[in-house]
Design goal:
alpha/beta; Rossmann fold; 7 helices; 5 strands
Length: 175
C-alpha cells in the first residue's frame, strides 16, 4: 500500500452537461503522463451498488455516501480518482471533500436547454413523459457548487475543459 495519498476530482453538473466527455479527455491526458487514475462513474457504480435503482432521495443519499467512501478508500491507497457523477446535492460532494484531503470540485456549467437537447440517456425525455420522477434539474433540484475549484463551460470542447482541469492539478502540485 502506498504511503502517499492520491487526489480526487469530482466532476459535477446536471445530466448531459458534458461530465463524461470531459472525464474521458482528462483520462487521456493523465494516462499520457502515466498518472494512475480510476473513474467512478455513477451509472456504472449504480449497477453494482443499487442494481435496481429507484433514484429516490433516500437511495441517492445512501448511494453518494457510499460512492464518496469508496473513492476515499481508493485515494488513501495512493490511487487517484475521478468521480463522474451528478451528485445533485452539495452535501454529497462536501462529504467527499471532508474525507479526501486532495480534492477538486469541477462544476460543468451548462444551460438546461442545451443538456435537454443532448439527452444521450433519454433522462429528460423520460421525465417529460412522466416515466421517472427524480431527474436532477427537472423534478429534483440540482445544487450548484458554491465554491468549486474549477468551473467549466459545458458548451466548450471537452478537450479544452480537460486542459483546464489538468492545469489545475499541476498548479496544486497533485501531479
Amino acid at each position: 500500500m502506498s504511503t502517499q495519498n492520491g487526489f480526487a476530482v469530482w466532476i459535477t453538473g446536471i445530466p448531459a452537461s458534458g461530465k463524461t466527455s470531459i472525464t474521458r479527455e482528462l483520462m487521456k491526458k493523465l494516462e499520457a503522463q502515466k498518472v494512475h487514475t480510476v473513474v467512478l462513474e455513477s451509472d456504472e457504480m449504480r449497477t453494482i451498488l443499487t442494481p435496481e435503482p429507484t433514484y429516490s432521495p433516500e437511495e441517492r443519499d445512501w448511494f453518494y455516501k457510499a460512492l464518496a467512501s469508496i473513492g476515499a478508500v481508493i485515494v488513501r491507497s495512493g490511487v487517484n480518482v475521478i468521480f463522474d457523477a451528478t451528485a445533485n446535492k452539495r452535501a454529497y460532494r462536501d462529504y467527499a471533500r471532508s474525507r479526501i484531503p486532495k480534492f477538486i470540485e469541477a462544476y460543468v456549467q451548462c444551460p438546461l436547454e442545451v443538456s435537454m437537447k443532448r439527452d444521450p440517456k433519454g433522462l429528460y425525455k423520460s421525465a417529460a413523459a412522466g416515466e421517472t420522477s427524480y431527474v436532477p434539474g427537472i423534478q429534483t433540484p440540482y445544487e450548484a457548487p458554491r465554491g468549486p475549484e474549477v468551473t467549466l463551460n459545458g458548451q466548450a470542447l471537452p478537450e479544452a475543459s480537460a486542459d483546464i482541469l489538468f492545469d489545475t492539478l499541476k498548479q496544486l502540485l497533485y501531479i
